[in-house]
Amino acid sequence: MVNRIYYEVKSITTSDQANNWIAPWPSYLSNPASCTSTGADKISCPIPINTGNAQASVSMNIDLRNKYAQMAVQGSNTALPSSPIVDIVYPTKDGIGKIVPNNTLETDPTRMFGMTLIPSANGAWGYILSVSPLENSMFTRLYYLDGNGLSKFKKYSEKNLSDRHSGRDLED
Description:
The structure is a single chain. The protein is mainly beta. 13% of the residues lie in helices and 40% in strands. The protein has one domain (27-170). The protein is built from three helices and eleven strands. Strands 1-9-8-6-7 form a five-stranded mixed β-sheet, with no helix packed on it. The termini are far apart.
């Protein structure tokens, strides 16, 4: 093991590589994707998972009213035994709501993911996946949730979602 670490360090040639070796940056794992309404306050969000040779079709079925979520085989109610998604956050009138899926697998903290639900103007929902705890980070709240629940920021511009960029002014 010592030899492996020695050669890993010896192969580092840039400061970015050094920084990533010491503490890799958490990141977003997907682009914004769409969810489908499945009833009153219920949505299903398809999540592509690469299983090596093929794509698995799974979805996160979410009931916002009852704060319940479960990862399942897409198109059915067959629950998967465990979910790597530990938190689902979404904007509410009062700030940010949080749901912990009932089949969350919480054994390996390096494989924990978060899901942020993003509302659209027409009442539909989308989502983005990230390394936990980015799902509720200040950047996520400002960039994807338009500062929902924050009182000290005021939106001053917005461009098309395909060229997503929002600006905010800090208020006194």
